[in-house]
Design goal:
heterodimer, A: five-stranded parallel β-sheet, extended, B: alpha/beta, five-stranded parallel β-sheet, 5 strands, 17% strand
Chain lengths: 537, 132
């Protein structure tokens, strides 16, 4: 603007007003060219094609009226300064426009040429300032991320060295150590682990802040994950003489979540629980279904520690917050754990909260979405308003050869899942979502409406199709087996949706147990049909 | 019986020394290189059974080494375990795609690392205890 030409896009449908504005612009001192359009649609097209220095905008156009008009322009070209030229002196509308990002609001009848020229110049300058502010904010954030990433990398190198040599000493690779020395070395090692966790949290929090955390949900059994978390924390709890207790509702269906991330949340909460519980106390981890909210699982970690005051409760999930009354000041960490836990839970569509009273311990709870098999199962298990006569659950196990890299294996598993989806009868069969924790070998399940006699044919077809899949032969071993799903007796007189739900529960249970165990026999159902089949390899 | 030979490539001499102690205690022979360039020449000369590779290296970083190993007629079959301070979210996929067998972030758990070494070495290796 200062030195060069000002390109003005004038969006104005009244020819008289347009001419007047043009006249005012030409009267001024600076070099101006004006592109005038009479419809908003043409204005938006011109904004895209050739962004102007400034937009002069009438609000009432043939294809848009009032506040709608400037909103559309701002959405379309957020970086271009907009000055409204209105026929009416409407202070409320003017303020609204400014708050939403318009640079100025002029009343047509009052415009002089110097007035207009100054308004345009200031609009352009203000917009440029805004842009550079936004850019420097962005740069600062980027710089902070890079800095933290660099710092965490640099901290890891000496930490690795400490870790290596301490473990060499503890393991007696440099000569025998006496019990007292071992005890001291173990203390060093614990601090190394703590430092490592802090470095990890630092990066993780940065990622959460910039929305860079990814989750990969699958069907998981929350009980297994809780047990895993508890066994990982057992040593820490034992050392502090804090008991870990687990209470699981055995009827919890599959949970749809990223197992690694849920484990991270659990460990964080259990670790906190242990930290704030005095010796001889205990931490109780529970999972249950709440009738009022049937689509979620409720998981809680309760400690018998000092509790959290109301002030701290309100802030505890904030980044970098630390309770000043926390008992264990020398082990307080960075104050990032709960912030990360909250981010992770919310990424899954759940929520996290705390209930606590000073002196009476704290209970942290979070929810995760359940996977509804019943909904998907409906076409598989019902036919003309009746339950199908027989349903078989086919189990496909994929085990990689030792030489296969994890990336290749991931691709093979993904392809196999696709193949499996293609080769079953879509209207009658269903490939269950990937179940279990992320492991090297994968287990996939197909629920098929076929009887036990016909299952071998189906298993053969699945095997052939999977083996024909690109790269499978070279990458892994395949095992296909099947088991009949015991169906509820029709004379139960239950409604169909209830029967479907019962089947879904059984299938979930069978998949959960990996079908290595015999399906749980149902009372009053005889259950003679639960035979196990296997196609010879 | 000859022991399996592992090439340790890392620019930190202290870490090379630590890994050497740890690996020898587990009945492996070790040879070392401190930069990307010598990693290749040592590999050619010593013909190791496995390589533990850092990513941030002078004279050709870990990715350059991986590429040169892959392109070589004689070295492309040697399994490579990457052991780096870098972030797995940004580096793990890239190194596996470049041909590495496994990725560990420093500081790595000794037992996990040894497990993967045992699983990765062409087996059964005479004279080496197999994982139970």
């Amino acid at each position: 603007m200062n030195n060069g030409h000002t390109h003005v896009l004038l969006i104005e449908d009244n020819p008289g007003d347009a001419d007047l504005v043009r006249l005012r612009l030409v009267e001024g001192d600076s070099a101006v060219d004006v592109n005038c359009v009479s419809r908003l649609a043409d204005g938006l097209a011109s904004l895209t094609k050739q962004p102007p220095s400034v937009v002069l905008l009438d609000l009432n156009l043939p294809d848009s009226r009032g506040a709608e008009t400037f909103r559309k322009v701002l959405d379309h070209a957020p970086g271009v300064p907009v000055v409204i030229l209105s026929g009416q002196d409407d202070e409320a509308l003017a303020m609204k426009a400014l708050h939403q990002g318009v640079q100025d609001y002029l009343v047509k009848g009052d415009i002089t040429s110097s007035h207009l020229e100054r308004a345009m110049r200031y609009a352009i300058e203000r917009q440029a300032l805004l842009r550079s502010l936004e850019m420097s904010r962005h740069q600062q954030l980027e710089f902070k991320n890079q800095f933290l990433s660099h710092v965490s990398h640099e901290l890891r190198t000496p930490l690795t060295c400490i870790h290596q040599f301490v473990t060499i000493l503890i393991d007696g690779l440099a000569g025998e150590v006496n019990p007292e020395q071992r005890y001291h070395l173990q203390t060093v090692l614990n601090s190394v682990h703590q430092l490592r966790a802090m470095i990890r949290d630092l990066l993780e929090a940065t990622r959460a802040e910039s929305g860079k955390i990814r989750i990969e949900p699958r069907c998981i059994t929350i009980g297994d994950l809780i047990q895993q978390a508890v066994s990982m924390m057992a040593a820490t709890a034992k050392e502090k003489q804090v008991g870990l207790e687990v209470g699981l509702d055995s009827r919890i269906p599959f949970v749809y979540a990223d197992p690694d991330r849920v484990l991270q949340v659990l460990i964080n909460l259990i670790d906190n629980g242990i930290k704030f519980t005095p010796a001889e106390g205990s931490v109780l981890i529970k999972a249950c279904i709440v009738d009022a909210d049937p689509n979620m699982v409720y998981i809680s970690v309760a400690d018998s520690g000092c509790g959290i005051g109301a002030d701290a409760r309100a802030l505890i999930f904030e980044r970098l917050y630390q309770d000043p009354n926390s008992v264990d000041n020398n082990r307080s960490g960075l104050g990032l754990g709960l912030f990360i836990a909250k981010e992770l839970v919310e990424l899954h569509g759940g929520r996290i909260w705390v209930a606590s009273e000073v002196g009476n311990g704290s209970t942290f709870s979070f929810t995760l979405p359940l996977y509804s098999l019943a909904k998907l199962l409906s076409p598989v298990v019902t036919y003309e308003g009746k339950l199908r006569e027989a349903i078989v659950l086919v189990k496909v196990e994929l085990t990689p050869l030792a030489s296969v890299s994890r990336t290749t294996w991931k691709e093979v598993c993904q392809q196999s899942l696709e193949t499996l989806r293609r080769c079953v009868y879509l209207d009658k069969d269903l490939v269950l979502p990937v179940t279990g924790n992320v492991g090297f070998s994968e287990t996939l399940f197909v629920a098929a409406s076929t009887d036990v006699e016909r299952a071998p044919v189906m298993m053969k077809r699945i095997r052939e199709q999977l083996e024909a899949g690109a790269g499978f032969q070279a990458a892994g071993l395949l095992k296909v087996s099947a088991s009949a799903v015991p169906l509820p007796a029709p004379e139960d007189g239950k409604a169909l949706p209830e029967l479907v739900r019962a089947v879904a529960e059984r299938i979930t249970e069978m998949a959960r147990l990996g079908m290595d165990l015999k399906p749980v026999p149902e009372s009053g159902n005889g259950d003679a049909s639960a035979s196990k089949l296997s196609v010879p390899d | 019986m000859e022991k399996p030979k592992i090439l340790i490539v890392d620019d930190d001499p202290d870490l090379r020394r630590a890994l050497k102690i740890r690996l020898r205690a587990n009945h492996y022979d070790t040879v070392q290189a401190s930069d990307g360039y010598s990693a290749i020449s040592v590999a050619q000369k010593e013909n190791p059974n496995l390589i533990i590779l850092d990513l941030g290296l002078p004279a050709g970083d870990g990715f350059v080494v991986l590429k040169r190993l892959q392109d070589s007629d004689t070295l492309s079959d040697i399994p490579v375990i990457v052991l780096t301070a870098r972030d797995p979210q940004s580096s793990e996929q890239k190194t596996l795609q470049a041909g590495a067998t496994a990725f560990f972030q420093k500081p790595a758990d000794n037992n996990e690392l040894l497990d993967v070494i045992r699983a990765t070495l062409p087996n059964p290796w005479p004279g080496t205890a197999l994982p139970s």
